[in-house]
Amino acid sequence: MNAELEENAGKWKDTADLRKAIGDAAKSSSWFKSIASGERWAEAVFPAFSDAAFQQKDFATKLSQFRTWVDNG
């Protein structure tokens, strides 16, 4: 992704480019092969859920579903 990201993840726009950038970063850095790295990523992203507007975004819905899967298998 060639654009600078807003530091506040709650202001990110859910786009195909953002999803691809996150996926590419995850693959190139082995994020999800390390519990510690996954936990650091979650600590950075999940505070955005305190923003009601963020909770309405499709990206937030998918992250919530993913977290439910992680927490409950």
In short:
Helix content is 60%, strand content 0%. The protein has 73 residues and is mainly α.
How many helices in DSSP terms?
4
**Quick one: how many beta strands?**
0
Mean pLDDT: 82
Written as H for each helix and E for each strand, in order along the chain, the element string is HHHH
Percent range for β-strand residues? under 5%
Instruction: Characterize the overall form.
Output: globular
Major sheet description: none
Runs with pLDDT <50, length 5+? none
Computed structural class: mainly alpha
* Radius of gyration based on Cα positions: 12 Å
How many domains make up the 3D coordinates? 1
Helical residue percent band: 55-70%
Instruction: Report the span from N to C terminus.
Output: 31 Å
Q: What can you tell me about this protein's structure?
A:
With 73 residues, the protein is mostly helical. It has one domain. The chain has helices at 16-29, 35-45, 52-55, 58-72. The longest helix has 15 residues, at 58-72. The radius of gyration is 12 Å and the shape is globular. The mean pLDDT is 82.
Q: How do the helices and strands line up, and which of them pair or pack?
A:
Elements: H1 16-29, H2 35-45, H3 52-55, H4 58-72
What would the keywords be for this entry?
73 residues, mainly alpha, 60% helix, globular
